């Protein structure tokens, strides 16, 4: 840490600014699906190894405890993603996945309704059957959830470059439900036990490769061009990689577009990303140094609570050290305003 960063304190950088985490998590009860699946599907539910994540807090499953822990961290509201549910995106049985997601979404709805406004849930949506996925999206919106979570790495026979998903993209766009893609979802390394060097390789290299490839498919496959009001959110992939990839995509698009034209691309790839793609981070100092040049309207701070990697209970200190150099108006966007605007949140005392 530089001397200048060490001199930045939460008081000098944030003062009484309210902050919102754009990526926090619930931890579903381990027996949630075993208790609620019908007998025929319960038999198909895979036996996952127990999680062993020391340091996780009870607020993951107890919303009242969560509010107390948010106060300790100085966080006013949190956008909530699943924990155990992430691994269910790799299920290959469509009926089972839909049932599991509905059960988890019902649990999340009840969890968030305990403290409405401060706890903001993102529902999981199965996309094996697009019509069913749209119905579940509509149901969850009516129940107060925002956006939706889909697989970041789809199965090979359902690539993002196809038009298979178009009715879903249209529905999400029309309902103003941003589409979220989170690490560890879908048909990637997260399905397998990681040992040796792969423990490290997948945590950084493979994770970012997954994110970059799926975003490439969504941009160069024409999804953002066809659905200009659709918003995507890349979750927990951090952010420093994005301006590099955008620059390279623009450079090579200009070079190759005559030889390999993409008629639907009316703008540079980077323009689609800048206008329609958001991303969360919780500790990315390099990304922080870029934010007054790139991402100030689309990058969103998070604390990853209650996972072991979370910045809790020192989130305001981390913000001060890693983002304290930003102009106040940019900092305010990144720690609060961008997430409010993206999801159209109404949070007492935080919307101005």
Set down the secondary structure blueprint:
Blueprint: H1 3-7, H2 10-13, E1 20-25, H3 32-36, H4 39-42, H5 63-73, E2 77-81, H6 94-113, E3 119-121, H7 130-142, E4 148-150, H8 166-174, E5 179-182, H9 198-220, H10 223-226, E6 232-235, H11 241-256, H12 269-276, E7 277-281, H13 285-290, E8 299-301, H14 315-323, H15 328-343
Parallel strand pairs: 1-2, 2-3, 4-5, 5-6, 6-7, 7-8
Helix pairs in contact: 6-7, 7-8
Which word captures the global form?
Answer: globular
Give the N-terminus to C-terminus distance in angstroms: 32 Å
CATH superfamily: Metal-dependent hydrolases
Mean pLDDT: 94
Largest sheet: 5 strands, parallel
Low-confidence stretches: none
Provide the β-strand percentage band. Answer: 5-15%
Order of strands, main sheet, comes to 4-5-6-7-8
Query: What would you call the structural class?
Result: alpha/beta
Task: Tell me roughly what share of residues is in helical segments.
Answer: 40-55%
The CATH architecture category equals: Alpha-Beta Barrel
Classified by CATH, the class is Alpha Beta
Taking Cα atoms only, what radius of gyration do you get, to the nearest Å? 20 Å
Question: How many separate domains?
Answer: 1
Order of helices and strands: HHEHHHEHEHEHEHHEHHEHEHH
Q: Given the structure, what is the number of helices?
A: 15
CATH topology: TIM Barrel
Structure write-up:
This protein is α/β, with parallel strands linked by helices and 352 residues long. It is built from 15 helices and eight strands. It has one domain: TIM Barrel. It has a five-stranded parallel beta sheet with strand order 4-5-6-7-8. Strands 1-2-3 form a three-stranded parallel beta sheet. Helix 7 (130-142) runs parallel beside helix 8. 44% of the residues are buried.
């Amino acid at each position: 840490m530089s001397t200048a960063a060490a001199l930045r304190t939460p008081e000098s950088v944030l003062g009484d600014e309210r902050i919102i985490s754009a990526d926090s998590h619930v931890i579903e009860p381990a027996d949630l699906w075993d208790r609620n699946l019908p007998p025929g599907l319960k038999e198909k539910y895979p036996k996952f190894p127990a999680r062993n994540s020391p340091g996780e807090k009870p607020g993951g499953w107890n919303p009242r405890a969560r509010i107390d822990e948010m106060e300790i961290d100085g966080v006013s509201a949190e956008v909530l993603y699943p924990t155990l549910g992430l691994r269910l995106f790799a299920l290959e049985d469509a009926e089972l996945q839909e049932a599991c997601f509905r059960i988890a979404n019902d649990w999340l709805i009840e969890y968030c309704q305990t403290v409405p406004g401060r706890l903001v849930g993102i529902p999981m949506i199965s996309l094996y059957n697009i019509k069913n996925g749209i119905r579940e999206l509509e149901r969850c919106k009516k129940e107060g959830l925002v956006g939706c979570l889909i697989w970041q790495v789809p199965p090979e026979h359902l690539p993002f470059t196809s038009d298979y998903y178009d009715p879903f993209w249209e529905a999400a766009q029309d309902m103003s439900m941003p589409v979220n893609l989170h690490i560890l979802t879908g048909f990637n390394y997260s399905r397998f036990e990681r040992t040796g060097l792969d423990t490290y390789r997948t945590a950084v290299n493979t994770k970012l490769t997954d994110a970059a490839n799926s975003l490439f498919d969504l941009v160069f496959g024409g999804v953002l061009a066809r659905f200009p009001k659709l918003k995507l959110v890349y979750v927990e992939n951090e952010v420093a990689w994005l301006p590099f990839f955008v620059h390279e995509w623009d450079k090579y698009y200009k070079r190759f577009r005559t030889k390999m034209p993409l008629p639907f691309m009316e703008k540079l790839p980077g323009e689609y990303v800048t206008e329609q793609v958001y991303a969360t981070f919780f500790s990315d100092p390099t990304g922080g140094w870029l934010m007054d040049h790139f991402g100030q309207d689309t990058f969103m701070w998070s604390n990853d609570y209650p996972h072991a990697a979370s910045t809790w209970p020192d989130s305001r200190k981390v913000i001060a050290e890693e983002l304290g150099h930003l102009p106040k108006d940019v900092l305010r966007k990144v720690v609060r305003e961008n997430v409010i605007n993206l999801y159209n949140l109404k949070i007492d005392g935080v919307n101005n």
